[in-house]
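Quick one - inputs below.
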Amino acid sequence: MTEKKKGKLTKVLDYLKHDDPFSKGVSFCPGCSLELLLRFIPQVLGNDIVITGTPSCSAPVLLGQNNQSWHTLSYFGTLMTGAAANATGLVRYYKKAGIKNTVVCFNGDGTAADIGFGNLSGAAERNEPFIYICYDNEGYMNTGIQKSGTTPFGASTTTTPFGSASKGKNLRRMNLGLKMAMSKIPYAATATLSDLDDLAKKLLKAKEAKKRGFAFLHVFAPCPTGWGYATENTIEVCRRAVKTNYFPLWEAVNGKIRMTKTVKKPQPVSTYTELIKKFAHLNEADLKILQDDIDYEYCMLGGLSVLESECQLPVSSED
Amino acid sequence: MSSNEFLKHEGPWSDANDPLMCSDTGGWRTKRPIVDKEKCIFCGFCAIYCPIQIMEMVENSYFSPDLRFCKGCGICAKECPKNAISMVAEGDF
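Output:
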């Protein structure tokens, strides 16, 4: 055999120190970014994590079916209204019993941004020591692609369809990551699946920050079935979302925001929306509204990231 | 388990020794990834981005998918920097 030019193995494989606890044939759609995220988390954090979650796309796999299981992790299934409250209970039990492990509250954007936001906000205020991961597929995908609070402007869903009377969602999306960063929790970050080394670093940082309190991760996870794009484009959609500043990557330690990836020349949002069928009906004026919204949020992030260094606070901070 | 006097039997769902459930997801596939061993530079991008994590290292020289579980999404072919993976329709086999 002739000598072959070998590249270097990607560094992401160094983060995958633990076994994959899931069985191979798992009932997620082909090209599902949630499956990649779910297999990634225990390989980075270790198989001793306890996952608690709610009815969502992740639940049929995490909860198991009939009397069999898809994985060997510990899972506690709960209702959407009480996701973070249940994680709080688990954390307090483990603390009382003297068991050292990591509780991961793994929810979709419907739970995190809409239905279970009260619990999430309360847990952040009480600074409960667990990791809350929100995988954001911008809608209620498991129940049939209804719109949620994080669905962006113009997106066509089954409750905001495109037709003669409606032109997709006519409201802007909420920025959940920024909301949680404003709670001044020890660690809040956004991540996506095109930058897996960034995601792995943030997961490990969240595990470290858990000793000080609440850690929140907002992971952008596109859905090929609900959004209408070809299954092979999952990572490309994530990449373009970062490159157009649609989903900027940042982290906030104790509320201090730092960009972890800055895009030098942000592309127009049309390079992102052209891949996805739920944005197919958008015209120039709609794209301008979406672009303005993205620019506004990015400007706000940029401003917040320099705020603490530029502002001289009248009272010296506690630390 | 036997120390619990109220629940003698915890139920079959708590028996971790049972084999894990596993679907025949390879049957969903419409296109099959074919790896060109010569073009493969062993960078590992297909392995990390594969949602099912079925790309296996073979002889430390190339990656090969486990076709029993491959759903045929095509992410590996799209993300390969050298275009070493091509998606071929299942009907051709």
